[in-house]
Every structure is written in C-alpha cells, then in structure tokens.
Design brief:
1 helix; alpha+beta
C-alpha cells in the first residue's frame, strides 16, 4: 500500500464560460433599462423647450397689445384726447375688434388695444407678416374683454369699461396650450372715473 499523500487539488483561477455568459446577460439587461430611461428623458426634454418658446411668444404678443392706446375714440379721431366718453368722439367710438379693414400687418393697422380682439395666427409671424423661423408649428390667439381691477374704494369694474383684460393663448406643436393675461387701463384725460 502506498502511503504517499495525494497532491491537494488546485483551485481554479479565472472565470468559467458559464459564469461569463450569465454576467453578460445580466449586464445587457441592466444596460437596456438604463438606456430606456435616457431615451425617455431625451424625448421629454423637448417639452420644456416648447413651453419656454410658447411663453416667449405669448409675452411678446402681449407686450405688443399692451403698448397700443386704449381710448374712447379711435386714435385717428380728432377728439381722441378730449372726449369724456364714447359719445364725445367726432367720427367713431372704439368698439371691440378691429375697425373695417384694419389688420395687424397692413395699412390701416391696428391702432387700439381692442382691435386685437379675435386676432389669431397659425404659424408665428412678425408685425410685417413675415414668418418667424422655427415657429411655424405654433399658433397664437388674442381675446380682449372688459376687465376688473382692485376690490376696494379705487377699484375698476368691468361695467365701467375703463380696463381691458388681454388674454394671449399659444399652442405649441405638441398641442400644449399656454395662456398669459395682462391688463390695460383707459387713457382718457377727461374721463370721470
């Protein structure tokens, strides 16, 4: 009988083929999940851009409207600065919406805040009716209504017709809408408030 001890088995060094295949499968599943999250985040990142662009369009159009005069008479009327009410106009009192033939971009142009009531554009254009690059998928509309300001002694009621509420609504290419409101008060030096 041989009493020589058997050599101790050697520990295997490295990775078996089966372990390597399992590692690759687990890694690919994890990588697919992470890539899916990145793809979803990339798609969603376009939405804030469109929302910021919609806000910029709305602010620009609202500023344009708010800079227009708001008087009892048409700004071309001889009594525009002296009329104490719409009855004091020499030719034509202002009414909601544009006067006959007035547009935003051609002569005669809008010349009063309320001329913008009902104005809309599909594809954003500047005041000269030139398309603004990259904004063809957006649309905008303007609504002008009687406004109420304040709630105390010095408040202006809608019935007084001394304030207008301007609402600009912009729709982005993905169908989201954004509305921005502003107010304009009457400039009539002789009006009794």
């Amino acid at each position: 009988m041989n009493t020589t001890p058997l050599p101790a088995p050697h520990r295997q060094l490295g990775v078996s083929l089966l372990e390597l295949v399992v590692f690759m499968v687990v890694l690919s599943v994890a990588l697919a999940g992470v890539l899916g999250i990145f793809i979803q985040a990339t798609r969603a990142s376009a939405d804030p851009q469109q929302q910021r662009q919609s806000l910029a369009i709305a602010e620009s159009l609202l500023a344009e409207v708010e800079l227009m005069p708001f008087t009892w008479c048409d700004p071309d009327d001889a009594n525009v600065e002296t009329a104490a009410s719409a009855a004091g106009c020499a030719t034509q009192a202002e009414a909601m919406g544009p006067e006959s033939g007035e547009t935003r971009h051609a002569t005669p142009q809008f010349d009063n805040v309320n001329d913008y009531h009902g104005y809309s554009m599909a594809g954003i254009v500047d005041i000269a009716q030139q398309a603004v690059a990259g904004l063809s998928g957006y649309s905008a509309s303007v609504a002008v209504t009687a406004g109420t300001l304040g709630n105390g002694f010095l408040s202006i009621t809608a019935a007084s017709a001394h304030a207008l509420r301007i609402t600009v609504t912009v729709t982005s290419p993905n169908g989201q809408t954004l509305s921005l409101d502003g107010y304009r008060t009457l400039h009539a030096p002789n009006a009794a408030f």
